[in-house]
Amino acid sequence: MRWMRQNISTVLLWIVLLTMPFWMKAVGGYTELATRVVVMGLAAMALNFLLGFTGTLSFGHAAYFGIGAYGVGMTIKYLVPSTALGMVVGVISGTLAAALIGALIVRLRGVYFAMVTIAFGQVFYFIAFRWNSVTGGDDGLNGWQRQALKLGWTTLDIQTHDKTFYYFALTCFALSALAMALLLKSPFGRTLVAIRENERRARFLGINVERHLWLSFVISCAFVSVAGTLYALLNNFTDPRALRWDMSGNFVIMAVLGGMRSFWGPLIGAAIFVVLQDYVSSVTENWMSVVGLVFVLVVLFFPRGVLGLLRGRGKL
Amino acid sequence: MQQLILFNIFNGLIVGAFYALMALGLSLILNLSGVINFAHGGFLALGAYLAYTLMPFVGFWGALLLAPFLTAGIGLVIERLMIRRLYGRDPLYSLLLTFGLAYILEDVARFIWGAQSLPYPVPAWLTRPLSSQYFFLTGYRLFMVLLVALAVSALFLILRHTRLGMRIRAGTLDLETVSALGVNVRVLRNLNFGLGIYLAGLAGVLAAGMLGLQPTIGTSLIMPSFVAIIVGGLGSLPGTLFGGLLIGIASGLTTVFFPSASEAIIYVMMGLVLLLRPRGLFGEEGRVQ
Prior knowledge:
The complex is a heterodimer.
Chain A: H1 2-23, H2 31-51, H3 62-79, H4 83-105, H5 110-130, H6 132-135, E1 149-150, E2 155-156, H7 162-185, H8 187-197, H9 199-204, H10 209-235, H11 245-258, H12 265-283, H13 287-301, H14 305-310
Helix pairs in contact in A: 2-7, 2-10, 2-11, 2-12, 3-4, 3-5, 3-10, 4-10, 7-8, 7-10, 8-10, 11-12, 12-13
Chain B: H1 2-33, H2 40-81, H3 91-113, H4 124-127, H5 139-161, H6 163-173, H7 175-180, H8 185-211, H9 219-232, H10 237-257, H11 264-276
Helix pairs in contact in B: 1-5, 1-8, 1-9, 1-10, 2-3, 2-8, 5-6, 5-8, 6-8, 9-10, 9-11, 10-11
């Protein structure tokens, strides 16, 4: 019975996602907002792979998001005008950076792990900020556009068609979500949950905790950089703010707001956060206070998120 | 060239002194309560703006004296109302809460005092250069270094010799035992938080005199302060102090040779420390896990 109910909500979720561009205008939104929900949702779900299912808090995921964004932008601008190749470069760069940083930090735990991820995130911010000639510095990387996708037998015009790009982003989202779900269902994913629940016991069972944490960190960052590439393609632009610490904080609050113990929770959180931010910044200059207040209220009153509330008490 | 190097080392020392002052406050709170206070930069800005507002009434020295205490008072209230409720829970929550507070504090500063940068008047006799050859040695900069040195010595004396300080140190090692010995841990953590925020407020007033006032004044100083803590060693206050000065001077020296890397260098240093000595230069063994 519960299995049925869970599946029904997943089906409903997909119906909403698949039809979103068609009713977005009717409820006062726009197609780009829908795409942003999907992209941010993917980023938050990728973060949650590490946060919710491995129990490790990274506050520096924006770095890999941003590397993905710059990777795709710089490839299209300087190397080849190809969206697909740009995405590949972006994701590989983000994943490599994560593999490198991850190796340095897997021995740290808890609050220190979080602090080091925050600090390392800043390295990439400063590179993007300072390396004017290549990254465009504070003004951001512009002067490039996402290119139409050539699929051999046909061409997908994601360049000028908002809706086509939405479905392209949704396809990337679906593939990433499927990959993460399969990974979490596999023995590897179960091991991650075991580490989350009791690291010492997992260690006694002969599990190489450090290697699992490292892998989980790298996988999580890889999918965050997928989201980053989509984000840059969506805006045809990227700037250092994409990899600054406040973006990392936004990912974490999306995951917590939606419910970090559930697979789809972060997507719900991202939807709420993105729509709220869009609305608030259109009506008041003081959107930072409102966003800050969301952080405070969520932490004090809804620490288990929306889905945590819906699923009832006692199950955390 | 020699003068340029000296100039940048001295500049780095000043910046490092700020990092250290910020990082010591962060470290105090982190060690005793396990909270990374992301809002520390916001409190720094608050201290600076409060001093600016107070100055017409109480003068430069009065503002220097009063503003940090006022900031600490606000810190005490915020700890009492919000942060206290998160002790013992996953550090995720206190991090998110203080993150939100940082947003709010920055926005409030912008709302009340405006987004444009404001000048912070310093007495004229303090801004004169002390020597014609070493033009960068203005009285104010020297005064800042001395004041930071004074504040840090005072902090270490308080921690070593007063009852409160001893309890803070003991609580850092084993809070449960301290509590069992009859110390009110809630009050202890509250005062400790206030002490940390006092240091942020003081750093804010001093920074205002050098950099002028703007709502984002604290955010640029908080990241290096994290690095100072990590490089110096988690759980060690002398380590934090050393870490702050070290990265300040390193960043100053890098400015001479490769200016665009002056920010990145401190993260490179952090990477090296984590690679070679994960607990930090002065860190105690086992604290990182």
